[in-house]
Amino acid sequence: MKKSLLLFVYGLLTLSFLLFLWQYGIRNSGEDGLGKPSDGLVGDVEEQYVMVTFQSNIDYWRPVMKGFEDAAAKLNVAVDFRGATQYDPIEQITVLEQVIARKPAGIAVTAIDPEKLNEAIGKAAKAGIPLVLFDSGAEGSGAQSFVGTDNYRAGAVAARELARRLSGRGTVAVITQPNQLNHRQRTEGFQDTIAKEFPGLSIVEVADGKGTIDASRQAAEDIVARHPELDGFFATQANGGVGIGQAMKKLKLPSRKIVIGFDTDKGTLDMVKDGTIDATLAQGTWNMGYWSLLGLFHLRHGIVQPSSEEKGGVHPLPPFIDTGITNVTQDNVELFYAR
Amino acid sequence: MKKSLLLFVYGLLTLSFLLFLWQYGIRNSGEDGLGKPSDGLVGDVEEQYVMVTFQSNIDYWRPVMKGFEDAAAKLNVAVDFRGATQYDPIEQITVLEQVIARKPAGIAVTAIDPEKLNEAIGKAAKAGIPLVLFDSGAEGSGAQSFVGTDNYRAGAVAARELARRLSGRGTVAVITQPNQLNHRQRTEGFQDTIAKEFPGLSIVEVADGKGTIDASRQAAEDIVARHPELDGFFATQANGGVGIGQAMKKLKLPSRKIVIGFDTDKGTLDMVKDGTIDATLAQGTWNMGYWSLLGLFHLRHGIVQPSSEEKGGVHPLPPFIDTGITNVTQDNVELFYAR
């Protein structure tokens, strides 16, 4: 009799404890007593989001990938990185189509070419896979958002920085990469701003630096040979700035020109530090990755503007998230090495 | 036999307790079995974010407030709404300063005036309170982001829609509200696009509709009296479009002009439906509220771009989240009544 009472008490204890465990689980599962959702924005580790780049090994993508990973860690989802190793649209289309075939939870793509990828991007939409573009967009592709620099505005900022350093007078040249949309927009913003705001400045040449240091150095040397009186350069791309910088190092002062570069790779930062490049524009690369994943997560989970599914309705996601630019000079260059 | 049962019960108790310890440890470490954080983006119900408007009773803010609330529900935080009841900068400054004194987790403000609020906005920064602007910005205010329409681009879209309907030829007028930054930008985008892309179109007047239907109707009637040959109007604001529409209703065809309105209040939608207004531009209002709160949450919780704390560093949040615009005509007007 006593033993069975003891057993009953033990049993009751165990039961109470199990009840407590169950309760504890409930309390932490994301519902409060009022039945309101309160578990936050959280996904499933089975949910995989893929980032697709080109020239996938360059350092430029590192902070972008870090932002994508950091967002995934916060949201408890998985990520994968794929990309064309070369600067080759055909290779990037192949990689993108392989990724679509795996039906991931969402895809973030940086477009090597503003038109050639549109068909492949359309396939993601048909397969119901959320897709956003980052860094370099593709107009009319049907992607649900573009997360990156306002490249037109970046060109305008470069024009104003160059004009300020030249007191609004002189001749300048641009070295760019004309087949990529972001570079076209930077050039256009630069040209329009010079034309509109600085009547004392004129652009004597816009050359193709082919995205490499060597071709850009050669282009810069050729331009200086044709226009020895030139006062400044704007490079819409990191290698362009370093190429111009190498050409400038050969010229002796006072022949040296003002150089505005782009991005914050080590080569560019070293030249900002030693004064070969006067200023460079840093992009919000970590934010490109972070906010791309956040956008894809919202599309995947349907946390979007009401009625967006319907034809003719509004944009489900903000169609453009401007990650900003920062002017980097000798004054703040040290801050950009660590990143 | 009974002793072994007792042993079994003891064993069960011990096991339960170990289970508890394991569970407790895991759940409170913010790590899942793989050592990754997995609790998602989630706040605390004690955390209160405040939205500050002006003309706080108008319907326009409803979807914006709904987006702010929906984001709060997802993130498990609280919201509050404050605002100047009138169209009065002094009243809005007073309200904003009262909100700052309460030290909320974050503040989203729509600026009635692009300069007058800057000092009060600066006080939030000094008090360490994250602040973003939405709908109508304030340049140079130091707010960490602007979430809203690219108003310059909206003006360009209106110009192209009007030009398309006039086959690129004729004279047009604008009715706007020149003291608010978003309206200035819409007017500028409209003017620049006409000047750049449509040499056959000219703008004969830009008038102040004072944000009311009555003043806008009067302005439209006066303009038509001075320019009876006028071909079209662009209103940068909802009441402006309705005012022009009322003036047009008095004119008999073929004297009626093409009218491009703004926003999707019931008055405007009814006039789009009956053909008095030819097209209106819908803004991503729900997204303004939703993404404002998401931005504030990221600032409050320090989930921002690395090194953003340091002077001269990059933008912690994307400095501009473009919530997009949609062209609303008779074809899709029904979709916008429900929202």
Going across the major beta sheet of chain A, what is the strand order? 2-1-3-4-5-11
- The tally of helices of chain A reads 10
> What name goes with the CATH superfamily of the largest domain in chain A?
Response regulator
Annotated CATH topology of the largest domain in chain A: Rossmann fold
The structure class of chain A reads alpha/beta
N- and C-termini, Cα separation of chain A? 73 Å
Oligomer state of the chains in this structure: homodimer
Gross geometry of chain A: elongated
Are there runs of chain A of 5+ residues with pLDDT below 50, and where? Answer: 25-35
**What's the number of domains of chain A?**
2
Instruction: Tell me which CATH architecture of the largest domain in chain A applies here.
Output: 3-Layer(aba) Sandwich
Largest sheet of chain A: 6 strands, parallel
The number of strands of chain A is 12
Strand % of chain A is: 15-25%
Name of the level-1 CATH class of the largest domain in chain A: Alpha Beta
Radius of gyration of CA atoms of chain A, rounded to a whole number: 26 Å
Percent of residues in helices of chain A comes to: 40-55%
Average pLDDT level of chain A: 89
Name the pair of protein chains with the most residues at their interface, and give those residue counts.
Answer: A-B, 63 and 64 residues
Domain Periplasmic binding protein (chains A, B): 50-292
Keywords (chains A, B): Signal
Protein name (chains A, B): Sugar ABC transporter substrate-binding protein
Subcellular location (chains A, B): Cell envelope
